[in-house]
């Protein structure tokens, strides 16, 4: 999925993130809010259980 497509999908569910803000999240220049991370994960079809195992 392209960054543009991700931004569009996020806007459809009510998260207003433009491509510049997404760039800053990806590169660690801005701290993302918890609900933004959850919606981004759901949009990208990320299994949160697997993600938790990667962090541990």
Task: Report on this structure.
The protein has helices spanning 3-12, 19-26, 34-43, 48-55. It is mainly α. It is globular and about 30 Å long. The chain is built from 4 helices and no strands. The relative contact order is 0.15.
Instruction: Say how many strands there are.
Output: 0
CA-to-CA gap between the ends?
27 Å
Q: Mean pLDDT score, rounded?
A: 90
Tell me what portion of residues adopts beta-strand conformation.
under 5%
Count of DSSP-assigned helices: 4
Q: Unreliable stretches, pLDDT < 50, 5 or more residues? A: none
Q: Major β-sheet, in short?
A: none
Helix fraction, binned, reads 55-70%
Element string (H = helix, E = strand): HHHH
Using the alpha-carbon principal axes, give the shape.
globular
Structural class: mainly alpha
What's the gyration radius in Å? 11 Å
Care to give the gist of this entry?
The protein is mostly helical.
